[in-house]
Every structure is written in structure tokens, then in C-alpha cells.
From TrEMBL:
Residues 13-477 form the Aldehyde dehydrogenase domain. Keywords: NAD, Oxidoreductase. Belongs to the aldehyde dehydrogenase family. Pfam families: Aldedh. This is methylmalonate-semialdehyde dehydrogenase (CoA acylating). It comes from Pseudomonas fluvialis. The lineage of its organism: Bacteria, Pseudomonadati, Pseudomonadota, Gammaproteobacteria, Pseudomonadales.
Length: 497
């Protein structure tokens, strides 16, 4: 019998009083490996109240001590790296190598949180007026909430709570109900690192829990990563309740291939960027834009994609694992069928994919379409599966116009040997993250993750300096100290002279 996961409330791991649970299944077998509770209203209130009370003390802890907590935490994460990756692989279906990458990219953000003293430095000007000085101080907000997706159950929580807590806030994490075992283990290690009681809370559940958190009067800021519909709901609801919100949503990322690009590098990178993690990445390349004569490479691309073999997480030869759920598989297969019906040519068809020994898995084979137009559903919609569509254009400017017409703006890349073409592309394209001969340009955490347009709702992005600004307020202090000179009379102006 699979156990029901506990929740972290007020510094203790507690079994929920709720009778409603959500099955956590192995995507390769459909076996139930755990159950997540649906937090009750009383448990939500207890978690937020504890976080608020803990904030009053945690905000006064010196920044160097908060940094030392993060140093201990990132050390523990590295010690338990492979253990975390195995938990993650079992509940997401990711290959072990991919799961290790998920964990490591999260560790990098925890490392950056250990640099919080420098990140929270304010500014000072002496003598802004005669004998008057002004300084800015960076101070925490209060209780922050994080709502994370299924596809990166280690990396995305680690995008959020280490930096928020290092800034002096407290945090309530509501991870995806599809793979909550990894976030629970992250929280256990955080407590082991010495996190004080109440600084981090973990609640489980679905929409009801999310809505209760994003409307709670004690919550100051909300971080979200997930689908477009949910991102829009959280942004609208959170801001309607006067919260600060950053909501990362969908994407449709293009790779532009110039005729002068190194063909072998293009094809290798394109296959990996489209099918890695079964295409379940918000930064996956799902559209290949072949410029001019580069369209001649589509046949070789089909050969390389057809050679990919999905498999179980522990299969070292597997290129990727299953998609997360039967519902996700049905959606991907429905879009593949729609693409065929709308007239696209299916060069590689993964609709009938099977994996020996795992007949119940959510398998989708690598799928490649050519002859795609921007009006087709397989071009317009984020498929979130190992499906790549090819579009052919004659010029770089046509490619730029195509990318800029997309409602999304998460990531894009161009492969070329021309510095002029690369410079023109990176300047003209209306996308937040651009790769030059880099297929998935996710920046390291001393920069920020900067999606644009319909891929992001808010003003300040994840990790890096923008995240520190998101999780803090700036206070300016203007001061003057009087000497014993006689007072000339009342000052009735707003001048600082």
C-alpha cells in the first residue's frame, strides 16, 4: 500500500487530516508510488500563520547567517544529488541523466542564494544636500508562496524558496501534485541544513489549495511556473488581491537554421532540444525554421529522430522517458492526429510507440512534421511532447517575422557562422532568451530567466538580481545630524538645502 506524503507545517512533518488524496504514479507503469493529500483549509491557515510568525524573527537574522544556511544547504544537496535524481526519475519518468541535470540546475540557484549579502546591498550618497545623506536599504516582504510544475520538481522549487528565504522572507511551497516526492525531500534537507521552524512550509493539493494561498491576506508575493491558463488565472487572481506576482507560462520556441550553419551540430542539437525530457520543457525547441538551402537537411533530421529510443528511467540507452500522464499522452497524440488531418507531412510518427516490458507506459515516440504552416494547431499550440515541426522560409527577415508573430516569447536560437546574421537576429527578435549556436539558452542563476510576451506575466523574473528585487522592498533613508549652530527660523519649503 502506498503511503500518503506528509506536509511540512510549523516546523513539523504532519499527516493531513484530509481524506482526499491524489495518486502519484510511475509514468512508465501506472503503479501508484505515493499519495499526496489535499490540504484542508485549517492546514493552509496553520501553514500561513506559522510562516507569518516565523517571518518576524527571520527577517532580523543577519544576512551572513542566512547565507551560511544556504551554504550548508547547497552542500547537502550535492551530497544527496544522486538520491534526489532517483526519486525524481521514478516519479517523473525522466532518464537518470536528465534527472541529475534537473537537480543540478536547482543546486546552482541555491549556490547563488549563498551570495545574498552582495545581492542585497543598497546604495548610499553622501551630501545629497548640505549635511544630508541618503541611503537605500533592501528589506524582505513577508510570506511568499511558490506554485511549481511537474516537469522540473527539483529545479523550479529551488528557483524559488532558497532566494526568497535568503532575502529574509518565509515561504509556503505548493508543488505539483503529480510529483511531490522530490520537493518533500528538498524540504527535508533544508531542515537538516538548519532552517528555523516555520521558515519553509510545504502543502499539497490541487486548485483549491492554490486559490486559498493566492488570495490569503497574509501572502505578499506569488511565484508560479506552469501552463498558460493556470498562469493567467494566478496572475489575475493574485494581482486582484493586491499581491506581487511572477507567473511563467507557455512557450513555442523556434530554432532558426541558416544555410551556413554547421550541419552536424545543427542536427544533433535540434534532436536533443526537441525530444529531451520527452519534450516536456518550457524551453524545448518545438519549431525548426529552415532558411533557404538548409531545408535540404530535413531528411537527415528525420533519420536521426527516428533512431531515438525512449525507455525506463534506469535504462542507460534510453533517449528520454514517458510523458507524465495518460492524459498528457492523449493530448499529444490528439495534436499529432490533427497535424496529419490539417495536411502536414508526418516524416517520423511516434503515435504507436511501445517499450518492451512497460506496456502501460505513457510512451510517445519522436515525431517530426514538415510542410507546416502557422495556421496549423501543431504550430500554434504548445504540444509538450517529443514533437518537432519544420517550417521553411527564404530569408532571415522572414524567420524573424515568423518568430515575432508568435504570442509567446520564452526562448529562441539561431545557428549560423555569420556574426552579422547573429547580431541582426539577437537584436530584432522579440523573445526574452536568445541562443547563438546554443539550442536552449537558459541562463545561469547570476542572470535571470527572462521570458517575454505570453510566456510571462509580471514585471520581475526568476532568480538572479530580478528575483532579489521581486522578493524585497527598497527603503530610502534621508538623514541629517544637527550641530549646535543657532536655528535661523522655520523652514517652510520642501528643499533639502
Amino acid at each position: 500500500m502506498s503511503s500518503t506524503l506528509p506536509q511540512l507545517i510549523d516546523g513539523e512533518w504532519r499527516q493531513s487530516q484530509s481524506r482526499d488524496t491524489i495518486d502519484v504514479t510511475d509514468p512508465a507503469t501506472q503503479a501508484v508510488i505515493a499519495r499526496a493529500p489535499k490540504a484542508t483549509p485549517e492546514e493552509i491557515e496553520a501553514a500561513v500563520t506559522s510562516a507569518r510568525q516565523a517571518f518576524l524573527a527571520w527577517r532580523e537574522v543577519p544576512a551572513p547567517e542566512r547565507a551560511r544556511l544556504m551554504l550548508r544547504y547547497q552542500h547537502l544537496l550535492k551530497e544527496h544529488h544522486d538520491e534526489l535524481a532517483e526519486i525524481l526519475a521514478r516519479e517523473t519518468g525522466k532518464t537518470f541523466a536528465d534527472a541529475k541535470g534537473d537537480v543540478w540546475r536547482g543546486i546552482e540557484v541555491a549556490e547563488q542564494a549563498a551570495n545574498i549579502c552582495s545581492l542585497m546591498m543598497g546604495e548610499t550618497v553622501e551630501n545629497v544636500a548640505r549635511d544630508i545623506d541618503t541611503a537605500s536599504w533592501i528589506q524582505p516582504l513577508g510570506v511568499c508562496v511558490g506554485i511549481t510544475p511537474f516537469n522540473f520538481p527539483a529545479m523550479i522549487p529551488l528557483w524559488m524558496f532558497p532566494l526568497a528565504i535568503a532575502c529574509g522572507n518565509t515561504f509556503v511551497l505548493k508543488p505539483s501534485e503529480q510529483d511531490p516526492m522530490t520537493p518533500n525531500r528538498l524540504a527535508e534537507l533544508f531542515i537538516e541544513a538548519g532552517a528555523p521552524k516555520g521558515v519553509l512550509q510545504v502543502l499539497h493539493g490541487g486548485r483549491e489549495v492554490v486559490d486559498a494561498l493566492i488570495t490569503h491576506p497574509e501572502v505578499r508575493a506569488i511565484s508560479f511556473v506552469g501552463s498558460v491558463a493556470v498562469g493567467q488565472h494566478i496572475y489575475r487572481t493574485g494581482t486582484d488581491h493586491l499581491k506581487r506576482v511572477q507567473a511563467f507560462a507557455g512557450a513555442k520556441n523556434h530554432m532558426v537554421i541558416m544555410p551556413d550553419a554547421p550541419k552536424d551540430q545543427v542536427l544533433s542539437n535540434l534532436v536533443g532540444a526537441s525530444c529531451g525530457a520527452a519534450g516536456q520543457r518550457c524551453m524545448a525547441i518545438s519549431v525548426a525554421v529552415f532558411v533557404g538551402e538548409s531545408k535540404a537537411w530535413i531528411g537527415e533530421l528525420a533519420e536521426q529522430m527516428a533512431a531515438l529510443r525512449p525507455g525506463y528511467w534506469s535504462d542507460a540507452g534510453a533517449a528520454y522517458g514517458p510523458v507524465i500522464s495518460p492524459q498528457a499522452k492523449a493530448r499529444v497524440l490528439g495534436l499529432i492526429a490533427q497535424g496529419k488531418a490539417e495536411g502536414a507531412e508526418c516524416l517520423v510518427d511516434g503515435s504507436d510507440c511501445t517499450v518492451e516490458g512497460y506496456p502501460g507506459g505513457n510512451w510517445v515516440g519522436p515525431t517530426l512534421f514538415s510542410g507546416v504552416t502557422p495556421q496549423m494547431a501543431i504550430y500554434r499550440e504548445e504540444i509538450f511532447g517529443p514533437v518537432l515541426v519544420c517550417i521553411e522560409v527564404e530569408t532571415l527577415d522572414e524567420a524573424i517575422a515568423l518568430v515575432n508573430a508568435s504570442p509567446y516569447g520564452n526562448g529562441t536560437s539561431i545557428f549560423t557562422r555569420s556574426g552579422g546574421a547573429a547580431r541582426h537576429y539577437q537584436h530584432a527578435v522579440e523573445v526574452g532568451q536568445v541562443g547563438i549556436n546554443v539550442p536552449i539558452p537558459v541562463p545561469l542563476p547570476f542572470f535571470s530567466f527572462t521570458g517575454w510576451k505570453g510566456s510571462f506575466y509580471g514585471d520581475l523574473h526568476a532568480y538572479g538580481k530580478q528575483a532579489v528585487r521581486f522578493y524585497t522592498e527598497t527603503k530610502t533613508v534621508t538623514s541629517r545630524w544637527f550641530d549646535d549652530s543657532p536655528v535661523s527660523g522655520p523652514n517652510l519649503t520642501i528643499s533639502l538645502k
